[in-house]
Amino acid sequence: xxxxxxxxxxxxxxxxxxxxxxxxxxxxxxxxxxxxxxxxxxxxxxxxxxxxxxxxxxxxxxxxxxxxxxxxxxxxxxxxxxxxxxxxxxxxxxxxxxxxxxxxxxxxxxxxxxxxxxxxxxxxxxxxxxxxxxxxxxxxxxxxxxxxxxxxxxxxxxxxxxxxxxxxxxx
Length: 171
Prior knowledge:
Blueprint: E1 6-9, H1 16-27, E2 30-33, H2 34-41, E3 44-48, E4 53-56, H3 58-71, E5 74-77, E6 91-96, H4 99-108, H5 113-124, H6 127-135, E7 141-145, H7 149-170
Parallel strand pairs: 1-5, 1-6, 2-5, 6-7
Antiparallel strand pairs: 3-4
């Protein structure tokens, strides 16, 4: 039975991982956090001193994911989306969080200074939503609010309904 591939994207701290893990559990799909995968496989191409983080080797990430994506039934979680092949995803969800919530979440993760401010600005200016719309067909890109536990439940219900409908239509 064919299953869709889903991309969850958005600024760090918007709730991609929480949503993705729970969605995979409910839908019986495979969850992949690209940041964790890169760390485990050392899929890096240097280190960014300014942001105090490794630089992702996007080509190696694509190579690592290619076979899994062709099987279907994968939920991919990453804060960037413009380097993934368009053919991989049936739907893209961009999670959005109000700045007051996001600031507290990022600060609790130890973000500070330029890294904290740049991520907040990224959310204010809808940078990742625009990246998604430019990278994928506009009709498959959807924004979801991700501020409260109620938003999480609503998003889970909405995406589960979408998955069920996709599977009826494609099997």
